[in-house]
């Protein structure tokens, strides 16, 4: 049976191809942007940002390479200040979810259009979700203003993505897909994207982790990342809510997603027959939760919550926070259920 649905997908132009970074100035011109502030993370992100600013030429309003994961309030304010001082009329976010996340807050508050050049697989470029953090509290929301108007996917930019970031950001994307199969807001489009993204990740992610310079694998994973990010229009369930609560304890984002994914999946699959058969087909494995766990075990990333600084004394607190949200789809999750999931992941 098809569940009733509303498919409200943002309009986005997607430019994909090896070497497509050279199109930044043309894409800015197409949007009528004459002064784009380039947003990046420090370090290697800044070097890439400088290259983008150079390619923008006279359409560049400079480089602001100060993005930080989860957009701390002070980082957001510095970004807003740089956009105002530089008289930017657009933003060019180059990097992973951290760079794109800062651009989103600037877009939300100043109404500037974003062009995104993603270099990880976490999928933020395809969503209307923004986030900002203050101390241990992260607030998120949805706003059509923050959806990048153009995404330029250039697999060349991902060749140097370290194996651990490759694996963790892709597991984050796979989590969007798994959860997209059972959230009540799912639509036939998000279901199709989720299964196709998982199929591509299942086949090519191990290759991209083993050999970062494998252009075919990198290209396939970047397409999968786009599809997976698009699935997030469908809303969030237990997995993303739990990852959000754990993020509040200061745990690293993508790694947290990767660690809890097999456990939350195992819990929910018991009540999600249709999603189960789609996962079996997409992952080519009769035991989808086991397949995700084996995927995680094969990657050079932290394997357990205890490995990323979570204290088991906080399990009860995290479980209570989730229980208060009354997650029911596809399976009601009580505080005891969440404690069991977290204990297993610990
Ligand atoms: P990230 O942007 O934090 O990047 C991880 C690390 O990899 C950083 O040190 C970065 O400098 C480095 N890096 C990125 N690209 C590189 C490249 N090509 N080569 C070498 N190094 C590179 O990682 P992420 O997982 O993409 O983003 C996490 C953030 O995104 C979190 O704040 C999360 O909440 C947010 N996010 C938001 C959404 C959304 O829909 N709003 C979706 C997913 C993630």
What's the arrangement of secondary structure elements?
Elements: E1 13-16, H1 24-30, E2 36-39, H2 44-56, E3 60-64, H3 73-85, E4 90-95, H4 97-110, E5 114-118, E6 129-134, E7 137-142, E8 150-153, H5 163-180, H6 188-210, H7 215-231, H8 238-248, H9 253-269, H10 273-283, H11 288-297, H12 315-323, H13 335-345
Parallel strand pairs: 1-8, 2-3, 2-4, 4-5, 5-8
Antiparallel strand pairs: 6-7
Helix pairs in contact: 3-4, 5-6, 5-7, 5-9, 6-7, 6-10, 8-9, 8-12, 9-11, 9-13, 12-13
The chain-level mean pLDDT equals 96
What about the largest sheet? 6 strands, parallel
Taking pLDDT < 50 over at least 5 consecutive residues as the criterion, the unreliable ranges are none
Biggest sheet strand line-up: 1-8-5-4-2-3
H-E string: EHEHEHEHEEEEHHHHHHHHH
Can you walk through the features of this model?
The chain has 346 residues and is an alpha/beta fold. The protein is built from 13 helices and eight strands. The protein has helices at residues 24-30, 44-56, 73-85, 97-110, 163-180, 188-210, 215-231, 238-248, 253-269, 273-283, 288-297, 315-323, 335-345, and strands spanning 13-16, 36-39, 60-64, 90-95, 114-118, 129-134, 137-142, 150-153. The strands form two sheets. It has a six-stranded parallel β-sheet, with helices on both faces. Strands 6-7 form a two-stranded antiparallel ribbon. Helix 3 (73-85) crosses helix 4 and helix 9 crosses helix 13. The two termini are 37 Å apart. The mean pLDDT is 96. The protein binds nicotinamide-adenine-dinucleotide (NAD). The site of nicotinamide-adenine-dinucleotide has 30 residues, from helix 2, helix 4, strand 6, helix 5 and helix 9.
């Amino acid at each position: 049976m098809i569940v009733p649905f509303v498919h409200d997908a943002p309009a986005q132009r997607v430019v994909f191809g090896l070497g497509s970074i050279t199109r930044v100035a043309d894409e800015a011109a197409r949007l009528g942007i004459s002064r784009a502030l380039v947003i990046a993370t420090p370090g290697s992100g800044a070097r890439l940002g400088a290259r983008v600013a150079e390619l923008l030429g006279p359409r560049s309003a400079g480089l602001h390479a100060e993005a930080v994961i989860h957009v701390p309030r002070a980082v957001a304010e510095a970004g807003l200040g740089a956009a105002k001082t530089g008289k930017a009329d657009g933003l060019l976010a180059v990097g992973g979810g951290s760079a794109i996340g800062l651009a989103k807050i600037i877009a939300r508050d100043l109404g500037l259009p974003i062009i995104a050049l993603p270099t990880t697989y976490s999928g933020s470029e395809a969503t209307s979700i923004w986030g900002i953090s203050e101390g241990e509290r992260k607030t998120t929301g949805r706003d059509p203003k923050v959806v990048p108007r153009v995404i330029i996917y250039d697999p060349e930019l991902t060749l140097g993505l370290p194996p651990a970031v490759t694996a963790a950001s892709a597991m984050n994307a796979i989590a969007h897909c798994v959860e997209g199969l059972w959230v009540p807001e799912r639509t036939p489009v998000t279901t199709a994207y989720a299964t196709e993204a998982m199929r591509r990740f299942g086949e090519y992610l191990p290759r991209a982790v083993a050999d970062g310079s494998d252009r075919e694998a990198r290209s396939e994973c970047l397409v999968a990342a786009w599809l997976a990010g698009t699935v997030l229009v469908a809303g969030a369930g237990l997995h993303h809510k739990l990852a959000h609560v754990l993020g509040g304890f200061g745990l690293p984002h993508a790694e947290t997603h990767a660690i809890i994914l097999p456990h939350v999946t195992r819990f929910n699959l018991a009540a999600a027959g249709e999603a189960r058969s789609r996962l079996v087909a997409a992952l080519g494995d009769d035991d989808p939760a086991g397949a995700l766990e084996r995927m995680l075990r094969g990657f050079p990333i932290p394997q357990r919550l205890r490995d990323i600084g979570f204290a088991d004394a906080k399990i009860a607190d995290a479980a209570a926070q989730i229980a208060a949200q009354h997650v029911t789809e596809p399976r009601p999750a009580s505080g005891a259920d969440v404690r069991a999931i977290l204990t297993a992941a610990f």
